[in-house]
Amino acid sequence: MNPGQTENANWRMFARLSVLALLMFGFGFAMVPYYKKFCEVTGITNLLQPNAKQSEITNSQVDKSRWVTLEFDANTHGMPWQFAPLQRSVRVHPGEMTQVEFQIKNNGSGALVGQAIPSYGPKQGAAFVKKLECFCFRQQALAAGETRRMPVQLVIDPALPANVNTLTLSYTFFEVPAADVKKSSAAGAANGKAG
Amino acid sequence: MSTATHDATHGHGDAHGHDDHAHAHKPTGAMRWIGSTNHKDIGTMYLWFSFTMFLVGGAMAMIIRAELFQPGLQIVRPEFFNSMTTYHGLIMVFGAIMPAFVGFANWLIPMQIGAPDMAFPRMNNLSFWLLPPAALLLIAAQFAPGGGAGVGWTMYAPLTTQAGPAMDLTIFAVHILGMSSIMGSINIITTILNMRAPGMTLMKMPLFCWTWLITAYLLVASMPVLAGAVTMTLTDRHFGTSFFNAAGGGDPVLYQHIFWFFGHPEVYIIAIPAFGVISQVIPAFSRKPLFGYASMVYATASIAILSFMVWAHHMYTVGMPVEAQLFFMYATTLIAIPTGVKVFNWVATMWKGSLTFETPMLFALGFLFLFTLGGFTGLVLSITPVDVQIHDTYYVVAHFHYVMVAGALFSAFAGIYFWLPKWTGRMYDETLGKWHFWLSLIFFNVTFFVQHFLGLAGMPRRVPDYALQFAEFNAISSVGAFGFGLSQLLFLYVVLKCITSGPKAEQKQWEGADSIEWTHLPSPAPYHSFATPPVLK
Fold this sequence. Notes:
The complex is a heterodimer. Chain A is α+β, with helices and mostly antiparallel strands.
């Protein structure tokens, strides 16, 4: 090759290698969307999307082989309160966390403090209903005409005898005598466990 | 190509001129160096620059080891310590070892393939002169408000996106170093592919040229990726992007993927030219041709290709799926095969050879033993379940110093002692050279061998203070480091003594050296060599 030819060949090589370098610079940036997509598809380090697979995470404590029907019942004892569950019954697996709501309304003309007492049917079911959160844990103070929705969070113990397929959870509100009213509940604060 | 007047001897025949200073053959004084387009001048500048940076990075290592001599904080503040580990790494990798081998490439490639100079002499000049500003930026970063960026040489987000102004200086330095490397690589590839003398086929090239051809491709393909990574860091810091900022939808782990996509080829960018030097030195002192030349070429190419597929073995602990961990583990262990081919070829070259043990050969043998040892600890680290235990411990520090110092640096010493007679026309002091070798070998092992034990016992890297049970090994390691550092001043003395007052060297100083810079060129090599291509059989 004469010098002129070599020089031309050199510049062609220079151009080709520069393009390669530029492409590799672009490749670094192309890794950004590619990485995002890759993580999305494979479900790893997916920080942007809500975790779609969360519901599929199995809780080994849940016994999916059986259903238990939970029925709710609500009563008041000598109080001008209207008290009812927002759902009559729910079907759950033992070991599964459930939340239901109750509603009370003070139809009387003055403020009253009441406390709900739970009871279970069948009676031996009581030991298998694990309440994590319940309005019955504390006294409820309602002003005249006030309405309140209250949650109950519970789990049925998977050890529940196999022959029990239905459990009834019944609450009855009793008026709390003035002498026993806890200051905190009268103030509306949420503490103190009375149940 | 526009050429300076003295380029006429390069055989381009188009010398014309805006070259307005009067000179007979070559410019003198500072301008000779600043404006030089001569591959030998530029090679020399690369080598001196890299030695200067080696001393700067080495001084930082001395600060690190002084602080670690005893448990507790004695000498420096932790932030400064972190800055020292960071810039020690950056300066040694980008300022010392890489430019050293580019210096070798500049000096040797045109002489070994029978070319008059590099393909792009002016770009060659620019490649070199980009380095000092980058080095100054790295040093200036120490004096930025808040001190140097103690982010580690890997510059992981999110630490880098939160670091002080020193980080910006560091990022710009990396940009400039990257540009320099890419231009240098383009120059080397073009020179090797287009400018070989007639008869010098690719498979007849000395192995050093082959290793640099492959390394240059690695550089062109990987340095831009690093440039991209630090650019993203820069825009995350100042321009509101969120590549790595989780609060804005980015992912810091992405940085690690991009960085190591560059970072693993970088390991071989450092190691492969070292293989090339060793492949020249061992045959010369065994007085036998290199065993398995073709398999050496293929093994080097396989290592280069595999290096792009193993990056995530640096990040087993980021929470990858187990399938990915297995893939990267197997791909990594696969690299042991071509590397084993090379090691066995070197050993087979020595088999039944007429061995003599001059300083270059001693360093080559030191390389062979210690690099292989570093390769073995690399295999240990490649096994995912083991790596999870010793990730980010001193075991890793010991491993990469065995391959970087005993590997790349020892091979650079071997190469410098080997070619000094050709470069300077004078012989170095063999006795002092051997002292330099033995002192380096012993102090290197005193420094780094004990760090394996520290790592296995659980001492994390990048900490200025440590638990009391690590005290003895750290004290030993520090003593070794000071000894190793001082031994390198002896090297400087040997080189200066050789240049100023060494006895005259012969054209073929080494009996077994057979590449054309030894057989066709006198010592010292003339300023312009192979202006007309050599006649090769």
